Amino acid sequence: MKWVMAEKFMNLDMTISIDPRLLQLASPTLPVGAYSYSGGLEAAVEAGIVKDAASAQQWIADVLDFSIVRMEAPVLLRAMKRPEDRRHWNEVFLASRETAELRAETAQMGFSLNKLLPELGVERMEMEEVSFPVAFAHAAAAWGIAPQDALMAYLWAWIENQVMAAVKAVPLGQTDGQRMLLSLGKRIEETVGRASAIADDDLGNFAPGLPVLSSQHETQYSRLFRS
Question: What is the pTM of this model?
Answer without folding.
Answer: 0.92
